[in-house]
Amino acid sequence: MSLKNIFYIVFNTLPTICKHFSTTAKLTWFAYQNSDSIEKLKNASTKDEKINAAIELAKKVLEFKKQNPAEFDEVFDALGEIILKIESDKDFRKSILG
Q1: What's the pLDDT at 49?
Q2: Are 78 and 23 in contact (CB under 8 A)?
Q3: How far apart, in whole angstroms, are the C-alpha atoms of residue 35 and residue 37?
Q4: Cα separation of 50 and 77, whole Å?
Q5: Contacts 24+ apart (CB under 8 A), 78-82
Q6: DSSP-derived secondary structure for 71-90
Q7: Backbone angles phi, psi at 20, to 5 degrees
Q8: What is the pLDDT of residue 16?
Q9: Over the Cα atoms of the chain, what is R_g?
Q10: Which one is predicted more confidently, 7 or 34?
């Protein structure tokens, strides 16, 4: 994906990001804190490693949900807005595909 496409995606999701700024910040921090688990899942070579890594990450997501129930619900609202944008804006959809 080119830098141009990344900027296009960020620009087009900026209203959603700003509207849900606190949640976006918490999710970004969550992803940063769990980057090792995410990498472990991406780099797993066997099915057993993939399952174990997925379970480890899922437990962390469930813990985040338990600690941040309102933000977790807000994530799905924001996701819905982004999905609508993808479905309704052909240029945006093309930018995501690279």
Answers
A1: 94
A2: yes
A3: 5
A4: 29
A5: 78/16, 78/17, 78/19, 78/20, 78/23, 78/24, 81/16, 81/19, 82/13, 82/16
A6: HHHHHHHHHHHHHHHHHH-H
A7: -115, 45
A8: 78
A9: 16
A10: 34
